[in-house]
Amino acid sequence: MRRYGVPIAAVVLILAGILSHFFTVPDRLLEAVRIIEEEGQAVVEVDFTVPVRQEGLLPEQGPSTLVQIKLRTVALAGNDRNEYLGRGALRGVSRRVPLTDVAYEAQVPGGPLLTLRFERPVHFRLDPADGRKRLRLIVEEPAIGEG
Q1: What are the pLDDT digits (tens) for 100-142?
Q2: Cut 0.85: pTM above it
Q3: CB burial of residue 18 (10 Å; 0-12, 13-18, 19+)
Q4: What does each C-alpha distance from 115 to 18, 68, 145 come to in angstroms?
Q5: Residue 97's CB: how many other CB atoms inside 10 A?
Q6: Are the beta carbons of 16 and 110 closer than 8 angstroms?
Q7: Do residues 116 and 137 make contact, with C-beta atoms less than 8 angstroms apart?
Q8: Rounded Cα gap, residues 10 and 19, in angstroms
Q9: Which one of 20, 42, 115, 118 is least enclosed by Cβ atoms within 10 Å?
Q10: CA distance 144 to 121
Q11: How far is CA 80 from the centre of its chain?
């Protein structure tokens, strides 16, 4: 019986490590926000640290200076926090996409919401091929007032 003790203990420790990885609450829900150019269109990519699913969009179409995406996230203890990324934390900011800030708002009516604010109204649509940890907002044309 003694010779099985070490392998059994090793398996228990490995399983405990795996389980703690999946049940540990991440420090942040928003991992990164960046603006990229893809096939002649600007795309705002929002990466999350946990799987999310988009459940609604307000307004449903642009132009608008405020876009709110209703999300469903995995049930985690402590996911009731709000997070804010200002212009300085956004990657690839350009005049074509006048994005000023992004906020994850868990404690709002109808939330949790991902809120994107723009300096000027933009035309947009959500990419239907979003992954489990990424949402993509396609800016369909330059912002109003841009040439």
Answers
A1: 889 888 878 888 889 999 988 999 988 876 678 899 999 886 5
A2: no
A3: exposed
A4: 33, 4, 23
A5: 26
A6: no
A7: yes
A8: 14
A9: 20
A10: 6
A11: 15
